[in-house]
Amino acid sequence: MDFPILSVMIFTPLIGMLIVMLMNKEKTELIKYTSVAVSIIPLILSVMLWFGYDSSTAAMQFTERYEWIPTLSIQYFLGVDGLSVPMLFLTALLSTISLIVSFHIKIRVKEYFAFFLLLEAGMIGVFAALDFFLFYVFWEVMLVPMYFLIGIWGGPRKEYAAIKFFLYTLFGSIFMLVGILILYLNSSPHTLDMMELIAQGNQFAHSLQILVWVFFFLAFAIKVPIFPFHTWLPDAHVEAPTAVSIILAGVLLKMGTYGFLRISYPMLPHGTQYFAYPFAILGVIGIIYGALVSMAQKDLKKLVAYSSVSHMGYCVLGMAVFFINSNGQPHTTGLAGCIFQMFSHGLITGALFLLVGVLYDRAHTREIAAFGGLGAKLPLYTALMTVFAMASLGLPGMSGFVAEFMVFVGAFASPTYQVMTGIAVIGVVLTAAYILRMVQKMFLGEFNVKWAGLTEINGREILAVAPLLILTIALGVYPKPLVTMISATLENIVFMVSR
Amino acid sequence: MADLRLMLPELILFAWAMMMLMYGVIRKNVGGNTMIYLAMLGVVITGFSIPMTGYGIAFGGTFFVDKVSVFFKMIFLGAAFFAAASSSSLLEKLKSDHGEYFTLILLSTVGMMFLISTNELITLYVALELTTIPLFVLAAYRKDSLQSSEAGLKYLILGAVSSAILLYGISMIYGLTGTTFINLAFGRLLEQSLGMLTLTQEVNMAFIIAMIMLIAGFGFKLALVPFHMWAPDVYEGAPTPVTSFLSVASKGAGVAAFARLFYSALPSFGEFYWGIMVGTLAAAAMIIGNITAVLQSNVKRMLAYSSIAHAGYLLIGFVSLPTTVNDTPFGPASIMFYMLAYLFANMGAFACAIAFEKNYGSYEIKDYQGLAKESPALALTFTIFLLSLAGIPPMVGFFAKYYIFLAGWPNYSWLVIVGILTSVISLYYYANIVKQMYFNRNETVLAKAHFDSPLVITLVLTVAGTILFGIFPESVIKFANNAFDAFPF
Q1: How do residues A169-199 score in pLDDT, each as one tens digit?
Q2: Where are the domains of chain B?
Q3: Which of A59, A330, A370, B345 could form a disulfide with B388 if both were Cys (CB 3.0 to 4.6 A apart)?
């Protein structure tokens, strides 16, 4: 038997959690280093996964399949394709970075790191599960540590933010549960195997597909979040501790888009075609609305949070555009842009939240207007912040540009979406406006002497942000590895949707 | 003799109950937890005797043992075991270690075991009385407490009224069919309707009234909305171990008898007559139970309302009884699994409330503030039970809900939608306790908690059950799914 790489990735953090729980809670340093060490194992494995993956085929690889509850055809079934490999890498990378960032946590250190490792196990599980029931279990398991992490270590309104996050996501996912029931009962033979359900995808009745699509939409749209389901996001982000914000923006939002591409698209082709147009409209609204709201923010973290709504809108627009052209070739540019955006937004926004946290730790405020001329005092910090701000507004040479460009090219290729693409492009201008305004107010201009005591970003924080910086620029200059990774899978998805 | 062999577990438990009564009279002031361990031992012995009896029919068809009854007997014994084990602080408070307390619990359990094993309406009624009369006494067991006496009296009066209604329904079924055997009643009803092509108007009316009587009677016993008004007061006033026993065992016995009666005596009438009635009751129980639970500030009252809601979830499985998936009747199996999940999570939650009250002397939710710091183990255990009750994986409660919804979807999808929406509401009040325990730091530092050993046994076993059956439910599912193959009639 092959090395069960995916199971090891899931269970290492779980075992790490148990080890942390058994440690003496006074030994905080040991707990911190152990947690980081544990989280490096899935990171290494995810790199091995990336290089071991054969990107010439869309078939599932590294599969593991065991019977779990055979009476109800539930299996322990894991596997990866071009969609999940980048997400697994992103998850493992951001987990390790978040744990490094969390070293400043002072209270209840043991509980914090235990919950964080549980969260990591849940996230990896979501991206690796190929059995619908298993997927749902991981999807829900993740909510519990998230609830605690926001609720215990969050800001002033942490309790409100934590329960709002929990109830919102549960409300969505419980509809997914009903969708799962319906698909299970209507498949023949009854199955919860995602591959099997995808194979049967075009046999489901059209009305049924539309109903289930709406159910899944509720679950995934709340996660993404797609306008108008985004209201939990600013609350959760602003109150959450830095590391949790990184995970929220970098990984949890991606689960929504991942869910659409893994589940709604191939399993419910008719539903997807039926809703493609309104879906794109919601994406465009998200882009413009998110950007406009960002412009009005006074709080730096809230600005980054709303910019996520805007940036995930690009994903949605890119996702809505798929067709098979006259040569019988699938048109995947939009989808590729979506995945590129998922990955690149994880890197950039993760880094932005990290840097916001760095400043907040020192200044204890996030109000943009309170700062000014920081560039003179904190040159290195300013440089890093500016680079990621530019990446966020889509400056060429960074990964954000590649993603947005692909989304626009992909969307414009279809006559149906040309007007919408035109409107969406305005979002780029708006993004530039709020990002540049933020950079100008905080780092340029006259230095506010109140901040004379601020210290420069330290070595640990630079270590945490460095991989994100390298990847953002590397993918911006040379996007080919990621594009190659996803292309076969995306072609397959477009074929499945066009059935 | 063969007949008696089938009844062996009931006989053992009955004899044990009597023995404990005698022992308590003869040896006063046994001290410590001796009586508790004795009661637990009796339950365990009875539990081990169940697999030895085998399946079959006895006493001219009035008594039978099938897989369903074996399963439910195990649930009742489990509830009796946990209730007895969490009683020590109550007995300490009462300065009484008489055997009668345990005798009453065990006798009530015997009643439940008969209830699930009978095929005859009179025996059913007698068993029901044997179940509830000890419970009246137990509810009023804290003689020093006004609340407890009120609870006992309320429970007695409403219990008597509901029994009368139930008995009236039973007598009408007898009048219509001329038999008290549950399995024969259906045949007679069918004969009548086939003989005259349709049920005549009079039979029809009488039949409907009988069903309404039965549903109302069982509705009282199960505290379904709108027959639930007694439950919160009784649950709050009764001693907490008794409350936990009431909420799990008595509820389970009610659902099982209800389902057995309606499913064997009136199956095909479900579609037209009782399905929609019971479905409406289930929806009302889920909605009212969950919404009212949000407003509670007392843990026992909150759990009382949540148990009303859980009865509603159980009834989803009940109305969907005839549904088959893969030729398996999921309805009964899902009820059985839900009861198992509910047993562990609810008994555990009550044990946590008892442990908290013992140490900090309060049942108010706001007093749980900062528990995670002083007693991390208790806080974590309580969290596990609350998450299970809310249906969050990987706890057993999640799988139970999944299974119930799966059974309910084909014929009662609207009920499932009500169920999922109300379970989101339920998360709010369960998470509220978690929030109190973990998020807030209390200024007044709580003392470190101490537990007595029977309570620790309860907590360990219920946590183990909640997690293990959540991750590995296959063996129980398989047993429950095959349970109807062995149905003797």
Answers
A1: 999 989 999 999 999 988 888 888 998 888 8
A2: 2-486
A3: B345
